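Colleagues,

Please find the record for the two-part complex below.
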Amino acid sequence: MITVSSLLDDHWFERYKKIARLNIRSSIYDVTDRCNLRCKGCFFFSSGEHEVASEEKDISKWHGFVEKEMERGVNLAILIGGEPTLCLDRVEAFYKRLPTFCATNGLIKVPRDRFPDMMVGLSLWGDAEDEQLLRGKDTFKISSANYAGDPHAYYLYTITPKQLGKTEKIIRKIQDVGLKVHMQLLSNDEEVDGFSWQPDELIAVRAEMDDMLDKYPETVISSRYYHEIITTGRMLGRPFGWMECPSVTEPIDKREPRPKRLTNFIRWSSDLHTMHRCCTSETRDCSTCKDGAAHMSWVMVNKRAHIKTTKDLQNWIEVYEMFAKLYQFIPW
Amino acid sequence: MSKDISRTITRIAEILINELKLEDVTPETFDPDLDLVDEVGIDSMDMATVALFLRDEYKIRIDEDDYPKLTTVRIIARYIDEKLNSNE
C-alpha cells in the first residue's frame, strides 16, 4: 500500500502533517446587496443575485445566524458582496466568532482597531487602464493607500486576457506597497468584448503566472499546479465542471449521482435564508468557469487521488498550503 | 487482545480497503496502528463514509466530533467495542 511517508522526504512529510488535520469547512456569505462600484463582469450583479432577496437588516439575526452556521460545522466564513465593508456590523458578527475572510474592493478601510487580524482580500482587475474600463475607477491607488504594509491583507488580482504581458508591472506595484498577491482569472460572465479567454491566451497566462511565482516568491501566493488546473480545467485527467465541482450549495444540490467528496458548502444570500447555487454566478457555464477558490477546493477534496506519486502529492500539498495561507490557517 | 477486537480490526481494515480503494494490502496485512491521516491520507469525508458503514454494521453512532481521535484502526476498534459494551 502506498503511504504518505513512502512518497515524501522528511521536509515534505512535515509540511503535509501541518495541514493534514486542518479540516477547513468554509461557506460563503453575501453580506449586502449593495456595492460602491459597479464593475463590468462582476457576477453578483450580472446574474441578478443582488435582486434575489432583501438583505436582513436586524443585526441580532446575523449573530444568531452565525451561531447556527458554527453548529453546522463551518470553521471559515468567506464574506463577499456586494461590498461587505458597507456593513461592518454584519462583518463583525462573523469576525467575533469565526476565522473570517472579507473580500473587498478596498475603497473603504477596514478599521484595524475593530478587526485587528481579519484577513482582507483586495480585488484588483488589472492595470489602471483596465480598472478604469471595467470598474470605472483605478481602485489600486485608493486600496494600496488604505492597506499598504498590512500583514492581514493581500490583493486578489483577477487577470484578464488584456493583462497578458503586463502582470509583472502589477506584481511589482503590489510588492512595493508591502502586500502579497494571489492571482486568479476572469470568468467573463458579461461577455465584455475582448475579455474572454482563448486557448492560446490560457497557455500564455499559465507561463506568465509561473514566471511571476518564480520571480516573486515572497509576494506571490500561488502554486504551479494551481496555475495548471485553472488554465487547463483539468486535474489528473479529469475535466472540471458541474459534476465535479465541490463548491455547490449542498442543500439544493440536485446532481445525480451526487459527488461523494463534499464539505457541506453553502453560499448564503444576505437575507440569511436564500441559498445561491454555488460559490459563483448561477448563470455561469461550469465548463468554462475560472473561479480560483472552486478549483482550489476541487484539488483539496481530492487528496487521496493525489496519493499516487511523489509529484502528485507535493502538488496537492502546495495547493492546500496556498489555501491555508490565504485564509490564515498557517502563516505566510 | 480479545478475539472480538481482532475481528473488528480486520473488518474495519476491510471496509477501509474497499471504500478507499486501497491497493496492495489485505485486511490481514493492514497495520492496525498505522496513522490513518498521516500515513493513509484519509480526511473527514473519508471518515464520514467509513462511519456510515460502521454505523450500519455495528448499530452504533459515531459522532463527527469524535473523528479526530479515531486515528488508527485499532483505536476505532476499541471505540466500537466501548460503544457496544456501554449499550449492553
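Strands of chain A lie at 26-30, 76-80, 100-104, 119-124, 153-159, 180-185, 234-235, 238-239, 267-268, 275-276.

Comments are welcome before we finalize the supplementary table.
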